[in-house]
Amino acid sequence: VPTTPRGPRLVIIGPMGAGKTTIGREVARRLGVPFADLDELIIEAAGRSIPEIFAAQGESAFRDLEARVLALALEAHTGVLALGGGAVVAEDSRALVAARPAVLLEIDEETARSRVGRGRGRPMLGGEDPLGRWRTLTDARMPLYREAARWSIDATDGGIDRIARRIIETLE
Ligand code: S3P
């Protein structure tokens, strides 16, 4: 009987709009394990929404909180944990995630366009050109995602069910 390691069974990372929360929840449901979303844990810890945290305290306060909540979740959570798009940018956080089974969800720009739209609810995409911001951020972060992830999955198409199934196949 294999011993159960501490920490999440699976961490899901990738750019904004990749479907990390939706697919993570479906993978957890199929595996019969708990699901948690880092952004939701941050909202609970702060008692306010992510746009409110950015507006009231700024990005660096959000990143501090994100890193602290992530470290706790990586210790305590035993199921599937979906992260926000910027959660592995900090080197320490990236190293913690790299020590876990982490999958990168990749999408193309067309898919991002339909998902992140005008950037509503995502302060990192605020301003005139949300998709341009998405592209710049994603290009810069892709090497960091690859460092943190053990494998990656094309999440551009295929539907939630198929992507979830593919992830579970690679886990087994
Ligand atoms: C962010 C991504 C968001 C959220 C916050 C910052 C980022 O999560 O954590 O708005 O820097 O990429 P999603 O990837 O779930 O949109």
UniProtKB/TrEMBL annotation:
The keyword Magnesium applies. Binds 1 Mg(2+) ion per subunit. It is found in: Cytoplasm. ATP binds at residues 17-22, 122. The keyword Nucleotide-binding applies. Pathway: Metabolic intermediate biosynthesis; chorismate biosynthesis; chorismate from D-erythrose 4-phosphate and phosphoenolpyruvate: step 5/7. Its cofactor is Mg(2+). One of its GO terms (molecular function) is kinase activity. Mg(2+) binds at residue 21. Its EC number is 2.7.1.71. It is an enzyme of class 2 (transferase). Substrate binds at residues 39, 63, 85, 141. It catalyses: shikimate + ATP = 3-phosphoshikimate + ADP + H(+). Keywords: Amino-acid biosynthesis, Aromatic amino acid biosynthesis, ATP-binding, Cytoplasm, Kinase, Magnesium, Metal-binding, Nucleotide-binding, Transferase. Its main location: cytoplasm. Monomer. Catalyzes the specific phosphorylation of the 3-hydroxyl group of shikimic acid using ATP as a cosubstrate. Belongs to the shikimate kinase family. This is Shikimate kinase. It comes from Brachybacterium kimchii. The chain holds residues 21 to 192 of 203 of the full protein.
